Amino acid sequence: MLKASHLISISSLPSWLLSVFGTVLGKSQPISYPIAMAPGLVEPQFRPPHNSTPAQTTKPSSTFGNVHNYLPGRTVVEQYDETYEYEQLRPRFPDVQWPPYETVPYVDKGQLGDPNFKHLLAHATDVFDYNPKIGTEIHGVDLANLTDLQKNDLARLIATRGVVFFRDQKNLGIDEQRKLSQYFGSLHKHATTAVPQREGLEDVHVIYTGENSPDMRALFTPTFLWHSDVTYEVQPPSYTCLKVLTGPPRGGGGDTLWSSQYAAYDMLSAPMQHYLSSLTALHSADLQAQGSRELQRPVRRAPVTTAHPLVRTNPVTGWKSLFFNPGFVTKIVGVPKTESDAVIAFLNEVVATSPELHARFQWRQGDVAFWDNRCTNHSATYGFAPHRRHAVRTAVQAEKPYLDPGSTSQEAELSARHGVPKASKDGSGIVNYND
Fold it and tell me: The domain that contains 250 carries what CATH number?
């Protein structure tokens, strides 16, 4: 199985092939990322003139033979006015230089949250989990108007559930989104990806894919786009907040999936947990920087490679999780390369192909996902062409990853608290296929 350092990004293709993309897509067209920040690869993006007509701009006629005008696999493509509501949040790539990050203090507000989340949920109209391991959706909560007690509960819930979803957050503009995230800590400024057109928002990451952009999934292995945000930093993020401004209608594709690293750790046998807990992994920003340079875009901060423990403790829950990232981990430290490659391949499979670890979210305009990068990976999906997708993201710098040998696990605590049977890990027995 290929690892991140062996993959070829479109930015590293020969110049003659890039010129082909330029001819097809328009020589001056920008290039951007899919809905969640890809580890190091970029995709061509087509932005049509304001007066151009997307592939389908009107609702299907009633001639389709049913009262809902339902046509399998087709969704209506929105045609945008010349005055796009979020024009100031379109992407730009400022040519500036930032110094290396220095250590910043961090105290996790989730440690102040109520164990029962009573403040956050006091006026919620609905709350439900996606599955026992990861993912919670809350209705009736306005993220733009939380009290400090509610924010503390929110951080605790995100750390507990991995990712929490909120629908139709009309009041959470970009300024409110930054203010909410800043309550939890200093915002991370990305060295290579797009920031908004509006000045002063350099700590906001813009995700933008224009109408009729090509589907570039053939450039990736199935595991490569799984990642946790900028884990190559010395202090990688705790909480990331992502709001979709514009996107496909329901059923239009482009979902995002999250994978629990708490549950991934709990999948492993005790000997494997012990072995991985003794290891560190290298997380590298080099591929991102390489892609930007080859696209003649600025690299605003020199890329870094950082060693982090392969198993870490979340300071809010006290649970152990894998801290492995298919997109950024390039090597396991202190073991032969054959062994390193085998560990990476094995963990890629665990993260990407274990359904019980996953929560899948179907976005609508105005939806927000808030997740904890310390205990989740996530992956964008393709399949949303020819729709426009536009989102903005803020991420909070957290503590330097550490492993407390005395910490417990999600499975152990839930088993003790609720009597949930622990999974069998010895591989013995005869069972029927779980269809």
Answer: 3.60.130.10
